[in-house]
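Model it.
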Amino acid sequence: MVELNVKLYSAYPKEIMLWDHSYSVFKNELPNLYREVTKNVATKIGEALLPETEKHLAPKRIPKPGAYEAYLKGMYYTGFLNQEGFDLARKQFNKSIEIDSLFGQAYQGLATLIASQKQMGFIPSLPYQPLLDSLTDLSYLLDSTNAEVLMGVAAHNTWGVFNKWKKAEKYYRKSIEYNPNMTMTRITYAHFLMIQNRWDEAWNQMNYALELDPENPWVLAFSAAMFATEGKVLSAAKKAERLIRIAPKHPMAEGMLLNKYIALKQESEAVKQLIKLVSIHGAPKTADIAMEGFAHGGFQGALEELLPYLESYSKDHFIRSWLMFNLYGYIGKKEKQEDWIIRMYENQDPNLPYLGIRKIKLDSEVRTMVMKEIGLW
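Modeled.
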């Protein structure tokens, strides 16, 4: 059971309590509690609800006991964006589906898990695309008026299906209409807006999420990425350090810390961080080759030795294209970066839309061509 006490005060001209009410509900009833509280508060302040708002606030199907709680745990663990988190999340989402096979959010959670694995380079994009499409469609079929499900559809049209930008924004806005205080919608919409180069709007969304839930792993990671893209390396690293304490081995945090060590010319720390970042791909000689190169030529030498090995390894094993693109950027190998842009496009790498951000400095005809191809430029 969850106990919630709501007190409503008038703020002007004198603070007076207008309403005091306690709610006692089971965890699986929490999604409908938000709707009930909203309607009650509107009634107490004499605010008439529009018919469309009434429709949004109508009670929804209540999932079976335990399904919603398992879903919430799954989303939290997915936010670690590392293998341990993904393994824990999958168990929770499967548990949620076992409890209630008609619970749309559980399928949306599984879709978020797979999309996150793709984004972080744990699995390739193309083989998993049909499953991701199916899970997104199924979640929407089961619950087309749920804010989390609508967010999932929007995110799928941002990172999973390129050239659907108007459709993505439509579903982000729908999700916010149904639940203005859902952090996942705010942070993913912030990145969508950043990809569209609408920075003021993007920060409005992200700052709202930071106010709502500043220690949430998802919020820390997505806000750190925005700081990093703006070139605010130390601000990004500060978020990353907090994130690492919550979710060790978080790939996004590892990347932000690498940028910090490079910027501060802390090369010995940078090469250690580089090895951590690349290690998720399991290339067995990574540490030895990087350290040998470092001994002869510092961090630049480590990359110049390591990257040809990773190129060779990528012929038979999956290597994250976005990672290789960025690593070549550290040593100024523009032609190699362009090779990996093409691979990102061919393999539907979900990070490809980030190349549309104007603040990423890369004068490249290949980049321009691909961004036009996916409808960003």
